[in-house]
TrEMBL record:
One of its GO terms (biological process) is fatty acid beta-oxidation. The lineage of its organism: Eukaryota, Metazoa, Chordata, Craniata, Vertebrata. Residues 464-568, 605-691 form the 3-hydroxyacyl-CoA dehydrogenase C-terminal domain. The keyword Kinase does not apply. This is Peroxisomal bifunctional enzyme.
Length: 709
């Protein structure tokens, strides 16, 4: 056309073909004397989701991104980016290479490369600080957070925000700037505005990034690259950016984080043995939901539902609990609304003592105390009260969902929805598919989870499901290590060095030691036949560690009682301090049982705790309780504080090498023949026998696929 040329990338991401298309079209436009300005926009109303992550695993082909962006910036005709929906990663870097940027009001912008173990290596770490200054650039690049168009406008990242058509607004802007000098619009020409206390700003950021993701390389590299923008001319800064990227690009951490990106999306694509799948099963619409029980879990679940726009009827049995639940839920909704500058949607939730109020809801989530008899009575009552087609969901952390379904008049409409505390914060939702849960029920629970902002993973109905079934064994190893000579702080430190946000004993104190105590009692591991003075270290045919029970008997229940594996300033205190009393308690215990303490290395702590998780993961795959190793990994990453840059227990086992994992488990099992879970699983042995095939092929080595999903 006569005055402007539209260049349309072909897809969401900057694949080799898209880069080729842009490079050639820009060159043509710059040469064509009829063209006065260029507008760059995306297809289907989406500007760009960044580089094609799948290409990172292959040999690079097509025109590279960096020279492509430089050519645009160096051009003698104004180029305007029309940002609709998103400009992320390489997409925002491309926009920063343009001379002007117009964004739609609903667009999101960001440099999320750090979440993939990388940095914005198409000049982003050098152009952004020159535009926004150091603190804002550090924030965006080291966190990878997405920002709104309005925030981008405030920071100067975009020149204009429109509620209307962004492409039309960009064309208008492009035509209005024809003939104006372009040099001031080239960000690589700008000097970086420096804060007064440059060193202080970087020191603070390094402390923050190390706290947020212990042991992660990318956030530190991001900060270093931004520092180069503060201290070096653009071209040398770019070299620094490239060197840092080279180190990250080939690191195991980048591979793990990119694996997580795809595994998270793969988890949503569930399938059942009867052929029902995510793409052939229609979820029910959910407009109203009931929540039964307003303890910690019920409160968080109610908040999630309301925030997702679902009307809630919250039920408690007694006035006192109802009142405190009402106050807590309202408080959470009000604080959230205040933070977001909106009105709290308090009108969307009603509180009642009457189950009858649930008669019209589309779905109920029961969140009462973890007790089968109690849950059964609730489900039987729900059967009587609710509409015949209402879904009945249980928030259980390990009970048999099918047993609960059996007391209802509608087993196909019963499903487990296992939330993690605090339920309005934690991202994981295990959806437990009972043998009789219908495809429509599973689809509704999975879709509802997504609507609540959760990563929903479909799992089978076995004790503890996936997450807690594995957790139990991880915790067992930690307890055994205490018996053998370790201290709680030594175990925690090793696990935190590995990357866990919190060590297992700190987590146990936080959750409350009485939770496990109750579970062990219910499992018949603790009872009147246990000698209180000399409790047995062998129960139900295997090694058993009575240490946590002994602590509970002393009233050491964790943070809430001010004492657990650690000491706290007061009941409810947060600061964990090593307790000399625990050290003496462990010494006495070992003496009583004739255990001579030995030196335990960090390597042993990590290997025993982490390999036992993967070993059980293999058993879960063999039992058909999870569809794929990716699902198990996402349960651990999103529900159990597993360090994302290590991909998940199954990915980690593959990275370490399955043969090594097998050999180390054999070694520890030889040392501890009474711990059956250290015995390598059949699937692990078979995979090693098949020369450790890639994860996608693991399922082919399960002798008979016995999916319970
Ligand atoms: C020694 C070697 C040295 C090498 C040195 C190398 C130098 C190289 C220089 C190159 C510099 C590159 C710098 C730039 C890097 C990047 O840009 S990295 C990517 C940054 N972008 C992102 O992280 C965005 C990721 N995507 C998203 O956040 C979301 O997908 C979305 C874009 C916001 C869309 O969300 P939604 O609508 O909810 O859809 P999804 O379900 O999430 O996605 C739909 C499908 O698209 C796939 N996909 C999305 N983004 C990408 C991507 N960037 N690459 C590949 N594929 C992507 C996603 O997987 C979905 O597909 P399925 O999984 O098949 O469903």
């Amino acid at each position: 056309c006569s005055d402007e040329l539209f260049i349309r990338p072909l897809s969401l991401v900057l694949s080799a073909a898209v880069r080729k298309g842009i490079t050639e079209a820009v060159a043509r436009a710059f040469k064509d004397t009829r063209v006065k300005a260029v507008v760059l926009c995306g297809e289907n109303g989406k500007f760009c989701g960044g580089a094609d992550i799948r290409e990172f695993a292959k040999a690079m082909s097509g025109p590279p991104l960096v020279p492509m962006i430089h050519a645009i910036e160096a051009g003698e005709k104004p180029v305007v980016a029309a940002i609709e929906e998103m400009a992320l990663g390489g997409g925002l870097e491309l926009a920063l290479g343009c001379h002007y940027r117009v964004a739609h009001a609903k667009a999101r912008l960001g440099l999320p490369e750090v979440t993939l173990g990388l940095l914005p290596a198409a000049g982003g770490t050098q152009r952004l600080p020159r535009l926004t200054g150091i603190p804002a650039a550090l924030d965006l690049i080291t966190t990878g957070r997405h920002i709104s168009a309005q925030e981008a406008l405030k920071l100067g990242i975009v020149d204009r925000v429109t509620e209307g058509n962004a492409v039309e607004a960009a064309v208008e802007l492009a035509l209005s700037v024809v003939g104006r000098p372009l040099a001031p619009r080239r960000l690589s020409n700008h000097a970086t505005p420096l804060p007064a206390d440059l060193d202080g700003v970087f020191e603070e950021v390094l402390v923050q990034v190390k706290r947020r993701a212990r042991g992660a390389m990318a956030p530190v590299a991001c900060a270093k690259a931004v520092r180069a923008a503060a201290e070096l001319p653009y071209s040398r800064g770019l070299e620094c950016e490239r060197e840092l990227m080279n180190t990250l690009f080939t690191s195991g951490q980048a591979r793990a984080l990119q694996y997580c990106f795809f595994a998270q999306r793969a988890a949503g694509k569930w399938s059942l043995p009867n052929g029902a799948r995510w793409d052939n099963s229609r979820p029910r619409a959910v407009h109203t939901a009931g929540v039964i029980g307003l303890g910690t879990m019920g409160r968080g679940i109610a908040v999630c539902l309301v925030k997702a726009g679902i009307s809630v009827v919250a039920v408690e049995t007694e006035e006192k609990q109802l009142d405190s639940g009402r106050r807590a839920v309202r408080g959470m909704l009000e604080r959230d609304a205040k933070r977001r500058g909106v009105t709290a949607p308090l009108h969307m939730i009603t509180f009642t003592l009457s189950m009858q109020q649930l008669r019209d809801v589309d779905l109920v989530i029961e969140a009462v105390f973890e007790d089968m008899a109690l849950k059964k009575s609730v489900f039987a009552e729900l059967s009587r009260v609710c509409r015949p087609n209402a879904l009945l969901c249980t928030n259980t952390s390990g009970l048999d969902v099918d047993e609960l379904a059996s007391v209802t008049d509608r087993p196909p409409l019963v499903v487990g929805m296992h939330f993690f505390a605090p339920a309005h914060v934690m991202k994981l939702l295990e959806v437990i598919c009972g043998p009789r849960s219908s495809p429509e029920t599973v689809a509704t629970a999975m879709t509802l989870g997504k609507r609540l902002g959760k990563v929903s993973v479909a799992v089978g109905n076995c004790p503890g499901f996936v997450g807690n079934r594995m957790l139990k064994l991880y915790l067992d190893q930690a307890h055994f290590l205490l018996e053998e000579g370790a201290s709680p702080e030594q175990v925690d430190q090793a696990l935190e060095e590995f990357g866990f946000a919190l060590g297992i004993f700190k987590v146990a104190d936080l959750s409350g030691l009485d939770i496990g105590w109750r579970v062990r009692k219910a499992a018949g591991l603790i009872g009147p036949d246990v000698d209180p003075k000399f409790p047995s270290r062998h129960r139900q045919g295997r090694r058993y560690c009575p240490l946590p029970d002994l602590l509970c008997e002393q009233g050491r229940l964790g943070q809430k009682s001010g004492r657990g594996w650690y000491l706290y300033d007061s009941a409810g205190g947060k600061e964990a301090r090593p307790d000399p009393a625990i050290s003496s308690f462990l010494q006495e215990y070992r003496l009583r049982y004739g255990i001579s303490a030995r030196r335990i290395t960090e390597q042993e702590v990590v290997e025993r705790c982490v390999f036992v998780l993967a070993n059980e993961g293999f058993r879960i795959l063999e039992d058909g309780m999870a569809a794929a190793p990716e699902d198990i990994d996402m349960v651990y990453v999103f529900g159990y504080g597993w360090p994302r840059h290590r991909g998940g227990p199954m990915f980690h086992a593959a990275q370490v090498g399955l043969a090594t994992v097998l050999q180390r488990l054999e070694f520890y099992h030889r040392q501890n023949p009474d711990i059956p879970h250290l015995q390598p699983s059949t699937l692990l042995r078979r995979l090693v026998g098949a020369r450790s095939p890639p994860m996608q092929q693991w399922k082919q080595h399960i002798r008979s696929i016995n999916s319970q999903l």
